[in-house]
Specification:
The protein is mainly alpha-helical. About 65% of the residues lie in helices and about 5% in strands. The chain is elongated and about 155 Å long. The strands form 4 sheets. A 5-stranded mixed beta sheet has the order 6-8-9-11-10, covered by helices on one side.
Length: about 900
């Protein structure tokens, strides 16, 4: 049996070997050697294996033993991303390079206008979200140490074991913290490619894979008796039952895929450490292959462990306990090294990434705010950043240790990992929305992240501590503050969901909804719009988007600031290199925009993009924007203006349509009233003569003693009413024919004077109320070509109306003829009182009769005149410029006979 001291010695030897490899890789990179290996897509793919922590090394077997094939979800999520979403990863890598970001908080902050508030929110969420993951690594190391210190611990469980796990966890956490502080903060610039770290992670990837495959080969061929026997064991085991809960599988795959994109350590190796976009093409199939090999022997190890080891054995430790139970100490040591490297590498890289976020986005902004004099004031920024990162490392690992202690350190590794995945998955809506949607806003991202984080804490993180620890039992059963819809595992009254599915669905769906809705109702500021254009169009121009307008910057001021951050030696070396590149060896470089941009990039590796931008901005004063981004924003503005114009046009069109509908409705109402009035009038006009005819007919029939004079008088009345009825029916028929356009016009030529003669003679013949008519004389000598009979009908009606309704003592009618460029006019003006103003608009309607008018007309004459003139392409109108009643008949120029085209114009009547 391997002793604990031997185990510690082997671990130290392994760690020293890893750092020797990392040291040699760093030296080779500085000397420009070994590029074929350091920048190899194979190394890049293996570095992604940092995703495979102690959860996948130890916890996957335990997950399979407890939940069957559900453990595959933690491998399927990242595989789907690499195979189906590698183009998204390519865009993400290109954005990270062009924006010079150092962390996921830096990237999200840069997208939304370099908002440090947003960076702080993301940093705090990342620290809290990764804390359970760090606790998971501590737990796995402690469990693996315990099985070597007390061999029965892995077989009988934790109870009663003499090994002090709390004390061991403290010393492991302390050792990891000190090691990370000493190694991880030697170099301030985190934006440079860490070739040594990447090579070390690649070596660990091989160790993990070899260790797990070695244990698997031993289990299948050494314990189970071969592949056939192993498959029989699997079929006989409960693990072999294919039971898939669709909602839980979908939720776990989605949250695993989201965590693969959003975990700070994954962002570090996948984005920051990427040398070439083309590496993603190899990784898109090579990394899923690696995950497949890591999961290949999980089920056989779980099944054989359940068969051979005593009941109650911890399935998370089957990878270690199976070799130990068979006396395979060397294999157990290799397995321990695989799990140890999985846990420690994750803790080191994760805490380095998180400490960078904390120092860049929390500590440095506070320090800059306190030191308002700027970066050129006394005080070593470098020492502040290094101290902030070291303290952040200690704080983050302390939080992981505290979570381990509070949660009891007894939960399944897979359950703890799922909680952490759910936390970092909250970054996904703001991340993807910022990459593909220009309309995404800072406020939308803040609101989405806020509500998603709160729901994750309430539904996943706090319940993980158990009842009556963070949340009381009454909160679980009755809801927060007694509100039943605020139960952690039945939010909004939705019951029956798996707790993981419940938490993931509610937190991410409301996160996304809030992000989308708030972004729709808020408008991005100019910097957000510029950054949005750069992120969305990153594949169109791969270079840096902005440059500095450095005309006011002095090289000396920039040198002083760089020394404060980078240190004197590194700053001077950088300035010498840039001066040499400008052809100015021995002097300070000119503060050109390209130089200042490169300096900002160098500083961003130490203090983050947002802080470096602010510090350079204190000295330089302003930035310039690339033409591509200006065009992108201008194009966006033009699209918005066009959309606004379209909305205005649509609004105007709708208003016009509404107005037309209103007028149409009014017209329909008027037509309906006219119809009712028409029916009433026609009924009245028909009933009156019919009543007279009927009455006098009955008198003639029934009265036997009538005198001849009475009979003649009554018969005359009947004859008169019959004529009146016939005339009414003729007028109605005539009007109907004219309105429907059914009547034919009989076009002929004649003198206007003759037409007027016929009309005057006909209208005044037999008149009991004579009216004097004054004519225009020579002005009437115009040859016209039209339907002369219809025109005579119009003139007769107008003369007859004047004769009937003119109430002057000496009624008189004046007929005036005028000539215009577009035709001729014939005015009929009497010397009566005229038509009241309120009646002038309706005098051409059917059955209209002036109030108090005398005569036996039915009120159809002017309506017929209007229809006739419409058929003759002319018009009839009432003139308001005269004291008496005045009507004008207009004939178009087309009604003039050709022989009249050369005659002189006649005067226009007033």
């Amino acid at each position: 049996m391997v002793s604990l001291n031997e185990l510690v010695l082997v671990c130290l030897t392994y760690v020293v070997g890893l750092f020797a490899i990392a040291f040699l890789a760093e030296r080779a990179a500085l000397r420009g050697r070994g590029g074929w290996l350091l920048r190899s897509p194979v190394v890049y793919t293996l570095s992604l294996s940092i995703y495979c922590t102690a959860w996948t090394f130890y916890g996957a077997v335990g997950y399979a033993a407890r939940s069957g094939l559900e453990y595959l979800t933690i491998y399927l999520g990242p595989s789907i991303v690499m195979i189906g979403w590698w183009w998204v990863l390519r865009r993400l890598v290109r954005i990270g390079r062009s924006q010079r970001v150092t962390s996921i908080a830096d990237l999200i902050s840069s997208r939304y206008g370099k908002s440090n508030t947003l960076a702080i929110v993301v940093t705090v969420m990342a620290v809290i979200g990764v804390t359970p993951y760090i606790a998971l690594q501590l737990q796995s190391v402690i469990l693996s140490l315990a099985i070597f210190a007390t061999p029965d611990a892995g077989l009988a469980g934790a109870e009663g074991a003499p090994f002090n796990r709390a004390q061991a966890a403290f010393w492991v956490a302390t050792g990891l913290a000190l090691f990370t502080v000493l190694f991880g903060t030697r170099n301030l610039n985190v934006n440079e490619r860490h070739h040594g770290v990447v090579i070390a992670i690649a070596v660990e990837a091989v160790v993990k894979l070899v260790a797990l495959i070695a244990v698997g080969v031993f289990v299948v061929w050494g314990l189970a008796g071969g592949v056939g026997d192993t498959l029989e064991r699997i079929d006989a085991s409960a693990i072999g039952d294919w039971e898939v809960q669709g909602s839980r599988w979908a939720a776990l795959m989605f949250v695993s895929a989201a965590a693969f994109l959003c975990l700070p350590r994954m962002f570090q190796v996948m984005v920051v450490e990427n040398n070439d976009d083309r590496h993603l093409q190899i990784a898109s199939w090579a990394f899923p292959l690696y995950l497949m090999l890591m999961s290949l022997f999980v089920v056989p190890i779980a099944v054989v462990g359940l068969d051979l080891l005593p009941a109650g054995s911890n399935p998370d430790l089957f990878v270690l306990s199976l070799p130990l139970s068979q006396g395979q100490n060397g294999l157990a040591m290799l397995s321990f090294l695989g799990g140890f490297s999985s846990a420690t590498s994750m803790v080191i890289v994760a805490t380095l990434a998180l400490s960078t976020m904390v120092s860049n986005h929390i500590v440095m902004p506070i320090w800059l705010n306190l030191r308002r004099g700027g970066a050129t004031q006394s005080g070593d920024v470098r020492s502040v950043v290094i101290l902030a990162r070291r303290l952040s490392i200690l704080l983050i690992i302390a939080l992981g240790f505290s979570y381990y202690r509070v949660s009891g350190g007894s939960g399944a590794l897979a359950a703890i990992g799922t909680i952490s995945f759910g936390g970092v998955a909250q970054f996904l809506p703001a991340l993807l929305g910022g990459m593909f949607w220009r309309g995404a806003t800072r406020l939308g991202a803040l609101c989405g992240l806020g509500i998603g984080f709160v729901l994750w804490v309430f539904t996943m993180l706090l319940p993980s501590f158990g009842m009556d620890v963070a949340l009381s039992q009454s909160t679980f059963e009755q809801g927060l503050m007694g509100a039943a819809w605020l139960r952690p595992q039945a939010l909004f009254g939705v019951e029956g969901l798996d707790p993981t599915v419940h938490a993931v669905v509610w937190s991410l769906s409301l996160n996304t909804l809030m992000f989308f809705v708030v972004s729709l109702f808020t408008f991005p500021d100019p910097i957000e719009r510029l950054q949005g254009a750069q992120f969305v169009n990153v594949l169109d121009h791969g270079g840096s988007a902005r440059g500095w307008t450095a005309s006011v910057a002095g090289s000396e001021d920039l040198m002083i600031m760089a020394q404060r951050i980078l240190g004197a030696a590194e700053a001077q070396a950088f300035f010498r290199q840039e001066a040499k590149a400008q052809g100015r060896p021995g002097n300070l470089p000119e503060p050109t925009p390209a130089f200042v941009q490169e300096l900002e990039r160098e500083l961003a590796g130490s203090v983050g993009a947002a802080t470096a931008h602010a510090m350079v901005g204190q000295i330089v004063g302003g930035t310039s924007v690339s033409v591509q981004d200006l065009l992108a924003v201008a194009d966006e503005s033009a699209q918005m203006l066009e959309y606004s114009s379209q909305l205005e046009a649509k609004s105007r069109e709708l208003s016009e349509t509404a107005e037309e509908l209103r007028h149409a409705n009014e017209k329909l109402t008027q037509l309906s009233l006219q119809k009712d009035s028409f029916l009433s009038q026609i009924s009245h006009e028909l009933r009156t003569p019919m009543t007279s005819i009927r009455s006098f007919s009955e008198i003639l029939r029934d009265a036997a003693k009538l005198s001849e004079a009475d009979k003649t008088r009554y018969a005359s009345i009947i004859h008169s009413e019959t004529i009146r009825l016939t005339r009414l029916l003729d007028d109605l028929l005539d009007l109907s024919v004219l309105e429907n356009g059914q009547g034919n016009l009989h076009i002929g030529e004649g003198a206007l004077q003759d037409v007027l003669d016929r009309a005057v003679t006909t209208a005044l013949t037999g008149s009991e109320n004579p009216i004097s008519v004054t004519r225009a004389g020579v002005q009437e000598k115009i040859i016209i070509r039209t339907d002369l009979d219809r025109l005579v009908q119009v003139f007769i009606n107008l003369i007859t109306n004047a004769k009937k309704y003119c109430r002057a003592d000496a009624p008189a009618l004046t007929i005036l003829v005028g000539r215009r460029s577009d035709g001729i006019t014939v005015d009929f003006v009497d010397n009566g009182e005229g038509i009241p103003a309120d009646a002038q608009a309706v005098i051409f309607e059917k059955f209209y009769r002036a109030t108090g008018a005398e005569g036996d007309g039915a009120g159809l004459g002017l309506a017929i005149c209007r229809e006739i003139m419409h058929r003759l392409d002319g018009e009839i109108s009432y003139l308001t410029s005269y004291e008496g009643a005045a009507f004008r008949v207009f004939l178009p120029a087309s009604a003039l006979a050709p022989v009249q085209t050369d005659q002189s114009e006649l005067s226009q009547p007033a």
